[in-house]
Fold this protein.
Amino acid sequence: MQGIIETLFDLVYLFTVIIIGIWMVRNSKGSRQYKLFGIMAIILGCGDAFHLVPRSYALLTTGLEANAAALGFGKLVTSITMTIFYLILYNIWRIRYGVTGKKFLSAIIYGLAAIRIALCCFPQNKWLSYNPPLSWGIYRNIPFAILGAVIIILFFIEARKHNDHAFSLMWLAITLSFGLYIPVVLFSSIIPAVGILMIPKTVAYVWIVLMGFFELKKERKVGRL
């Protein structure tokens, strides 16, 4: 039953974000902000598919342990695409609020992302094993958590400063995505039930994408695009 329910949820999620992403790219009409939103959604969906599709297959067939290598590789791909997702979101922040300069801030953001991706590529992560070391799960997520915290603060400050109602809760959606993800990293190997947090975490990602989607539809409706 878990396999069927989880598979249906994952399929709806993947098709939703990828289709929305394609629609946004096709209808951005020269708006770099919304084109990036679409690309971000496509990367999110395609990246997560590398993990969710093998997971669904494992749950419906021979089990997670028997498919550890495929699941581990999927987690590696997802870890990298999640990092790229937030790099794109940072650039959306710059475009939306007309931020120029701030080279030091950009260096921090891109530096944290590079460190995160580099740590993900270390063989010590043992991605292809069924029980990878928790320590490396923590190491690679430290720069990722810092990256997320910076982006949360940036959106919180600028949305309030510009009275941006459409993105007023962007900071909260990002906070939830990280707040629900970290316990899974830390405790899912000890308490498997913690893994259920990945569902609301996924919903938080969809929320982020939908903020851009509905804002683009609004812009098109009033004739700005």
